[in-house]
Automatic annotation (TrEMBL):
One of its GO terms (molecular function) is L-amino acid transmembrane transporter activity. Pfam families: AA_permease_2. Keywords: Membrane, Transmembrane, Transmembrane helix. It comes from the Eukaryota. The keyword Iron does not apply. GO terms for cellular component: membrane. It is a multi-pass membrane protein. The chain crosses the membrane at residues 42-65, 86-106, 126-147, 159-178, 198-221, 242-265, 341-360, 372-393, 408-428, 440-462. This is Amino acid permease/ SLC12A domain-containing protein. It comes from Hebeloma cylindrosporum. Coiled coil: none annotated.
């Protein structure tokens, strides 16, 4: 039985570190570009937070009813009990084959190197500095979480506190910009000078708004992170009810204030046309070009916290799948040797990430991997959301598993519909300026996501054929 060593504070930072990766430092420029105005972009961020809050409530309900390691695996198994192990095999393909920690380990490497030197090295080389540092990052995380759980949790908590400090610095820099204190030669943008100016340029195109919302909801992915380790949480139901909403509220406030900071320091044209991260533009306009290196170090630490949090949860998911017997060499992946931690489960996730880091070329292929990580999760989230509603109104006389209250029905409906949007929209051809890739077709990551599910189904057909 896993030791219950995760309290409310650690649970908050397990969620917080997964939520705050690098999205808030990069996506606001894209969202402003497609929304067209400051007011509409901020409104869409608020809408995204509402969807995330609804999702958090869905996971609180499921997690309180089934407080075990594994997250969605448990909820899907409860909904689909026949054929035996089919849904588990489909979920296992998604959990094991997608390298969730690869992207932010590369971001950590890129910004760590950039914080020391502005010179860039060719990332296409097999053993480029970026890939080597990413390898070191993932290996260090594997050792921490696999050999000394308390040390890994303490580092996660420390980086969580540091992220709060980083975000406070960005917000504080925004207030300095609002007061008009910009670098010499930087014109005052005046984005908030009037109500009309705030909403000027708002777009009415459905495809553009869909692109914005897709990016925003992606920034909120991770609120379910503690659900993967509920067997190690003190009083899981109470901890979820506190840690989940608190994390969403804090992150939403920071997201909105960071956006205000960006808009206070640069004009709309600067933000949308700059090829740099919008946070770097903020620091450059307020503190000068040298401050960009400091920001690079900040973003590297934020990415490291995300890698720690992602690996922590994925190791436990892989271990739970090993205990279910659905993986090849299941007893090996289910092991807790030598430190009563899922070292082998963490190692499986580490191996998938290393393959992606060294095998996937830069450009479209890497963007495809990132998009494909989020696509299957949208399908799974829609299923477990409408599954809650189904269990509240069962077709037989067995009685509802969950009381059909407004605190269940409204969040499940909102979150379910939002995730249907997320996995349907990528199938619709976007306008030319919203194309996600330079060379690949727009639907390729959606096809990849469905193929992952198909791999799981084929594995079930081969592994369980002839079994009762």
């Amino acid at each position: 039985m896993p030791k219950r060593q995760i309290g409310v504070v650690s649970a908050v930072f397990i969620i917080f570190n997964r939520l705050i990766g690098t999205g808030i430092f990069a996506t606001p420029s894209t969202i402003l570009k497609f929304s067209g105005s400051i007011g509409l972009s901020l409104s869409l961020w608020i809408l995204g937070s509402v969807i995330a809050a609804a999702g958090m409530q869905v996971y609180i309900i499921w997690g309180s009813a089934l407080p075990y390691n594994g997250g969605e695996k448990n909820y899907l198994e409860y909904l689909f009990r026949r054929p035996k192990q089919l849904i588990t095999s489909i979920y296992a393909a998604n959990a094991v084959l997608l390298a969730y920690g690869a992207a932010n380990s590369l971001v950590f490497a890129e910004y760590t190197l950039a914080s020391f030197s502005s010179a860039s090295s060719p990332s296409s080389a097999i053993f480029s500095p970026v890939r080597v540092v990413a390898f070191i990052c993932l290996t260090g995380v594997l050792a921490l979480h696999g050999l000394h759980i308390p040390a890994g949790i303490r580092l996660q908590n420390l980086l969580g506190f540091m992220k709060i400090g980083i975000l406070l610095i960005i917000v504080g820099t925004g207030f300095i910009a609002l007061s008009g204190n910009l670098q010499e030669g930087v014109p005052r943008p005046g984005n908030f000078d009037s109500w009309e100016l705030i909403w000027a340029g708002s777009t009415t195109g459905g495809s553009a708004l869909c692109t914005c919302l897709y990016n925003i909801i992606y920034c909120f992915i991770g609120f379910s992170n503690v659900n993967y380790a509920l067997s190690e949480v003190h009083n899981p139901a109470r901890t979820l009810r506190i840690a989940g909403p608190l994390s969403i509220i804090v992150v939403t406030i920071f997201y909105l204030l960071c956006n205000v900071a960006y808009y206070a320091a640069a004009s709309k044209e600067e933000i949308t046309s700059s090829g740099r991260l919008v946070a770097a533009l903020l620091f450059k306009n307020v503190w000068g070009p040298r401050a960009e290196r400091v920001l690079n170090a900040f973003i590297a630490l934020s990415a490291l916290g995300n890698v720690l949090s992602v690996s922590f949860s994925q190791g436990r998911v892989n271990q739970a799948l090993g205990k279910e017997g659905v993986l090849p060499f299941s007893s090996f992946w289910a092991s807790s040797w030598p430190a009563k931690a899922p070292l082998t489960g963490l190692g499986l996730h580490w191996a998938m990430c290393i393959i992606v880091i060294f095998a996937v070329p830069p450009g479209d292929a890497f963007n495809f991997i990132i998009n494909m990580n989020s696509y299957p999760l949208a399908v799974i989230n829609s299923v477990i959301s409408f599954g809650l509603i189904y269990l509240a109104f069962p077709p037989d006389d067995s009685g509802p598993l969950f009381a059909p209250s407004s605190s269940l029905l409204f969040p499940a409906l909102i979150f379910g519909c939002a995730n249907i949007f997320l996995f349907v929209v990528p199938l619709i051809k976007p306008p030319p300026e919203s194309e996600p890739y330079e060379h690949l077709p727009y639907w390729v990551h959606a096809m990849g996501g469905w193929c992952i599910f198909l791999v799981g189904a084929l594995w079930w057909m081969w592994h369980y054929r002839g079994r009762p």
